[in-house]
């Protein structure tokens, strides 16, 4: 009996991917069809990603998959299946998506908002430091 692989993310129809480059960078899409060993057909009309051929080197495979999606499904079918399975909500609930959203919020801050964030961080750090010092004394 062969040993079970620790690798879990495969390029497959229904795999949710994160786009690393291009005009839709940072958005998620789903692999609709596999073209060859370098490219896949992706689509996600709900997120504004048009149906297109995309190289694997510009995709990041996520742990999410849609098992109900048939091979070569049209944009309407893709939209219905993704909404029915709540893929967008599942992605938004992952720590990966939350980190990306926090990073985007942080990048969008202006100078005054960054200053306020620094003060909040300082206040939080001082509170932790004081509570640790009090716990050591006790």
Automatic annotation (TrEMBL):
Domain KOW: 10-37
Key words, A-Z: Cytoplasm, Ribonucleoprotein, Ribosomal protein
GO BP of this protein: ribosomal large subunit biogenesis; translation
Alphabetized SUPFAM superfamilies for the sequence: Translation proteins SH3-like domain (SSF50104)
A molecular function (GO) term: RNA binding
InterPro entries: KOW, Rib_uL2_dom2, Ribosomal_eL14, Ribosomal_eL14_dom, Translation_prot_SH3-like_sf
GO cellular component, one term: cytosolic large ribosomal subunit
SMART domains for this protein: KOW
Family annotation (CDD domains): eL14
Location in the cell: Cytoplasm
Pfam families according to UniProt: KOW, Ribosomal_L14e
Lineage top rank: taxon: Eukaryota
Function: Component of the ribosome, a large ribonucleoprotein complex responsible for the synthesis of proteins in the cell. The small ribosomal subunit (SSU) binds messenger RNAs (mRNAs) and translates the encoded message by selecting cognate aminoacyl-transfer RNA (tRNA) molecules. The large subunit (LSU) contains the ribosomal catalytic site termed the peptidyl transferase center (PTC), which catalyzes the formation of peptide bonds, thereby polymerizing the amino acids delivered by tRNAs into a polypeptide chain.
Protein family membership: Belongs to the eukaryotic ribosomal protein eL14 family.
Protein name (database record): Putative RPL14B-ribosomal protein
Natural source organism: Exidia glandulosa HHB12029
Upper taxonomic lineage: Eukaryota, Fungi, Dikarya, Basidiomycota, Agaricomycotina
């Amino acid at each position: 009996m062969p040993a079970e692989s620790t690798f879990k993310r495969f390029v497959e129809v229904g795999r949710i991917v994160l786009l690393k480059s291009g005009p839709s960078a940072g958005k998620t899409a789903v692999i609709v069809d596999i073209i060859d060993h370098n490219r896949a057909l992706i689509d996600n009309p709900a997120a504004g990603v048009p149906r297109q051929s995309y190289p694997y080197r510009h995709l990041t495979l996520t742990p999410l998959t849609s098992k109900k999606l048939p091979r070569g499904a049209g944009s309407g079918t893709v939209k219905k299946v993704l909404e029915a399975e709540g893929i967008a909500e599942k992605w938004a609930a992952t720590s990966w998506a939350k980190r990306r959203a926090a990073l985007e919020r942080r990048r969008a801050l202006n100078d005054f908002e960054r200053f306020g964030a620094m003060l909040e961080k300082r206040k939080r750090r001082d509170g932790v430091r004081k509570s640790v010092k009090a716990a050591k004394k006790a």
